[in-house]
Design a protein that fits this description.
By secondary structure, the protein is an alpha+beta fold. Helices cover about 25% and strands about 25% of the residues. It is built from 16 helices and 26 strands. Helix 5 packs across helix 6 and helix 14 crosses helix 15. The longest helix is centred in the C-terminal third of the chain and has 23 residues. This is Xanthine dehydrogenase YagR molybdenum-binding subunit.
Length: about 700
């Protein structure tokens, strides 16, 4: 592609200096005059009835202003997305999960509020909780409920030369963002300002307005710097509504910032999943049928559907495809999307089954995937906007040395060495977005877009896009973001920011260039360009509808894993990932995203699980000290990430697709395949913990 514009290359992050010097202000750094502090009091049981809340001792505690219970709060209506819950706490006396808020302590200091919280007496009539794996199952509602059917799966299964049928389990996991969720609420008459930890600030006003009977136009949300989200801050959660309600009742600003322990029961998690795969194939490994039935847990009344079957609809060519989504109701708070939702969960099952198919047919796992490459969308036959997956396979195999992997040493001291691979893929979200670009008379530029910075470098990318379109240096760009008074640029989730907000910024900048061409530069104090990016029919759904082309990102992941023969410990020795994701705007931030995704996938595969108490139904570990996540010592320096050279005109105005979650997909299945290659044990439950391997290791030794 030839362009006379300034090329985007290796610019540093525009917000980096503010972050490393402490100048960047996060939600907890805001302290309006007269601010009070609120903390939640949660139900001590996972199921039962609330008989009463005694606040007497807490109200008498030093520094306490008041303690709110159901009788003090408004009657909350039923809510809908983007609210995180449908039935708000305090609506009735039914306890549906441990930690469900039953009181709110408001005090002059956070220390006083925390001390008083322990003095609130909660009287419950407990009931036996419904546990994970034991709840009633029902068809998932909405777009992903029921069945998707293409061709005759029953006939494909009956006629198959090779059949794979296995069930794969995935433990629930919490997001563990560095910054916990919180809100600062301040009223000025009927106008409400919220400083909020949220990944989509433009979705907050309508939810707050519905919950508190307000005009959404009077709700301003400021969400500039967010300390990570990974999906936990995608929805509008009850604590945001509580902060606004508490501030109105108290007549003073209120900060409600969740404790780490509160995160477990108040802002979602990735659900527990059970997935059953059927692959029907010819002796060559060519697929003739794919069946994928997925079950995820939901709350007792609130519903979350994890559409894990989407990969099975979209990744491989097959004449017959049948998928079904179910939910299981249990006594836990409602789940929510986590980084690489949908595909990340589904590819654990699909890609593991593909590796088992390779073993059953005696065909190399890479060749099985090449044999089933989908030239067009398997769902509806539409052409891909761009698909360079074949090149990613080839380059990844070359860089890894996949074809001669077994010619290398299979042991290294106590370590047994195995190799595995999988396909990575994510559907491409796009959201209606707007942006404003101002070109000043002195040649400086202001870019305005309401998109939170959750640590992914979004503000850098948007600044770079404006710099490229206008032909000005990056240091002449001023970025204004994270405020609902700015043009609504879409959310910071779904790997959608670059495609959506980036296209809006490009459109706004091009409008400025057009004005310059029409008017010239003489006597101009400021030119303003308004840019919009819209998808036909609004938000594009997960199968890529509303576009003439099917949009997805692709990749191939190869890993080398060591298994300690004595202790069953796992080590990631090296990884190679090659990805097809449209134009890569900033190689530095893109590489960081993909390495982070691979590390994320390693944690999912080998470490992370949120365990439910099998007697009382509550979450067991509610602090970071009892949570196993990857640290630097777990990660090798040999993580090789690269991208296929590509420009996707159909995806966005800037030729890019989203990459924020792609790197996290497929890693778990590749790791499980490497474990099998090393020790001959086929693991079908995540995480792959040492005790799952020790019995077989002892037998082999």
């Amino acid at each position: 592609m030839t362009s006379t514009k300034l090329p985007i290359t290796r610019f540093p992050r525009v917000e980096a200096t503010a972050k490393v010097t402490g100048a960047a202000r996060y939600t907890a750094d805001h302290h309006p005059e007269g601010m009070l502090y609120a903390v939640l009091v949660g139900a001590p049981v996972a199921a039962g009835l609330l008989r009463g809340v005694d606040t007497g001792a807490a109200v008498s505690s030093p520094g306490v202003v008041t303690v709110l219970t159901a009788s003090d709060l408004p009657d909350f209506p039923l809510l809908s997305e983007p609210a995180g819950v449908t039935v708000m706490p305090f609506t009735d006396n039914v306890i549906r999960y441990e930690g469900q808020p039953v009181a709110i302590v408001i005090a002059e200091s956070v220390e006083a509020a925390e001390a008083a919280r322990t003095l609130v007496s909660v009287d419950c009539a407990p009931a036996d909780p419904v546990l994970l794996g034991a709840g009633a199952r029902e068809a998932a509602p909405g777009e992903f409920g029921g069945e998707f059917t293409k061709g005759d799966m029953d006939a494909a299964w009956a006629d198959a030369v090779v059949r794979i049928e296995q069930t794969y389990l995935l433990a629930p996991r919490h997001h563990h963002a560095m910054e916990t969720s919180g809100t600062v609420a301040q009223w000025d008459g009927d106008d409400l300002t919220l400083w909020d930890t949220v990944q989509a600030s433009s979705t907050v006003p309508p939810v707050i307005a519905a919950a508190l009977d307000l005009d959404p136009g009077r709700v301003r949300v400021i969400a500039r710097h967010i300390g990570g989200g990974f999906g936990s801050k995608s929805y509008v959660w009850p604590h945001e509504i509580f902060a606004a309600a508490a501030a109105r009742i108290a007549g003073r600003p209120v900060k409600l910032h969740l404790r780490r322990a509160d995160q477990f029961s108040n802002v979602g998690y990735q659900p527990w999943m059970e997935q059953t795969m059927r692959l029907a194939a010819e002796a060559s490994g060519r697929l003739t049928g794919i069946q994928h039935i997925a079950v995820n847990n939901a709350g007792m009344v609130d519903t979350h559907v994890e559409p894990a079957t989407l990969s099975s609809r979209n990744l491989y060519a097959s004449d017959a495809i049948r998928t079904r989504q179910l939910i299981e109701r249990v006594n836990l708070n409602v789940p929510t999307p986590m980084r690489a939702p949908l595909e990340g969960a589904g590819q654990w099952a699909l890609e593991s089954a593909m590796n088992e198919l390779a073993e059953a047919t005696g065909v190399d796992p890479l060749d099985v995937r090449l044999a089933n490459f989908a030239e067009v969308s398997p769902t509806d036959g539409r052409p891909w906007s761009s698909n360079r997956l074949r090149e990613a396979y080839a380059e990844g195999a070359r860089r890894y040395g996949w074809r001669d992997r077994h010619e290398r040493a299979r042991t290294d001291g106590p370590w047994l060495i195995g190799h595995g691979m999988a396909t990575s893929t994510m559907g491409s979200f796009r959201f209606p977005s707007a942006a404003r670009v101002r070109l000043r008379g002195d040649g400086s530029v202001v870019v305005e877009a309401n998109v939170p910075d959750i640590g992914t470098g979004a503000t850098t990318i948007l600044s770079q896009i404006a710099a490229e379109e206008l032909g000005v240096p990056l240091d002449r760009i001023e970025m204004r973001w994270g405020d609902t008074q700015l043009p609504a640029a879409g959310p910071s989730y779904g790997s959608a920011t670059t495609m959506s907000a980036g296209s809006a910024v490009a459109a706004a900048a091009r409008e400025v260039v057009k004005q310059l061409a029409d008017r010239g530069i003489e006597g101009i104090d400021e030119l303003i360009g308004e840019g919009r990016f819209a998808t036909p029919g609004g938000v594009m759904n997960l199968d890529g509808e509303h576009t003439p082309s099917a949009l997805r990102t692709w990749g191939a992941i190869f890993v080398e894993v060591g298994v300690d023969r004595d202790f069953g410990l796992l080590r990631l020795r090296r990884a190679v990932g090659v990805y097809s994701a449209g134009r890569i705007l900033n190689p530095v931030t893109a590489r960081a995203q993909m390495i982070g995704g691979i590390i994320w996938g390693w944690g999912k595969a080998t470490l992370e699980a949120s365990d439910q108490d099998r007697v009382h139904g509550r979450w067991l570990a509610k602090n970071l000290s009892n949570v196993a996540v990857p640290v630097n010592a777990d990660i090798p320096t040999d993580i090789d990430v690269s991208f296929v050279d590509e420009y996707d005109n159909a995806a966005s105005l800037i030729g890019a697709r989203g990459i924020g979650e792609l790197g996290a997909t497929g890693v778990d299945a590749a790791v499980a395949a490497a474990v099998h290659d090393a020790v001959g044990i086929r693991v079908r439950e995540l995480p792959i913990l040492p005790w799952r391997l020790l019995g077989a290791l002892e037998g082999s030794s």
